[in-house]
Amino acid sequence: MAFGIPVPTSEFVNPHTGLVNRQWYQFLNNLFGNQGSGLIGTANQVLHGNNSGYSAVSLTGDVSGLLPLTNVARGTDGQIIIGQTGAAPAYNAVSGDGTLAKTGALTVTKTGGSVFVASATTDTTNAANITSGTLPTARFETIGAWTPADNSGAALVFSSVSANYTQIGNMIFAYASWSYPVTASGANASISGLPIAAGNANYAQVPSIVDTSASITGGLVLVPVKNTTTANFDVGTPFGPATNLQLSAASIAVMLIYPIT
To answer: pTM to 2 decimals?
Structure first.
């Protein structure tokens, strides 16, 4: 039997008293003391188990025969033991910005953390902005210029061009004003030069209302062409293409809103 404790041969219960026999009580108590309550080790020991049993093993000195590695030194508060192939395990503090208390609490701070990669905008102070909570609007949007140009094939040259755009997420807000030259071209009015190609989906072709000095019944709209940087002018009533002739010498002002891919 484990630990060399002899098993009593007497009956488990005394027939006269109805209680557990004294020999069985002592056996069970000794068994609990050695196994049920666990081994009582000393400071700087660990409980080591193998195929044949377990015992308290000191972390100092040679422990060959009990552990596969020897001469494991003591650690200090806030360290953890790290195993190494072919060598004795070593105590190490948590690396980077972490600290480990002997109570088991792990604390990680931002000091000395990884440097943020520069953003796509001119603002390269990502880490400082995130720390201070003062992220500029440039973190979420892109602002730039674009130039509307004739796409009808009539080689028209626009004048008084003023255009810019804002990108927020996948949405483009392209605002512009310009003037058409005097022309007799009957080609369908169209422009190129949108800042970013419209999304390759029908929902990207939503018309935007155009303010114009041209006399067009039913109003004028500008419709982006999906998966391109072009847009076509249409009239509202009846719905269909507007021509260069209809926009001859007219001023144009528009906010074209569309999603990109």
So the answer is: 0.50
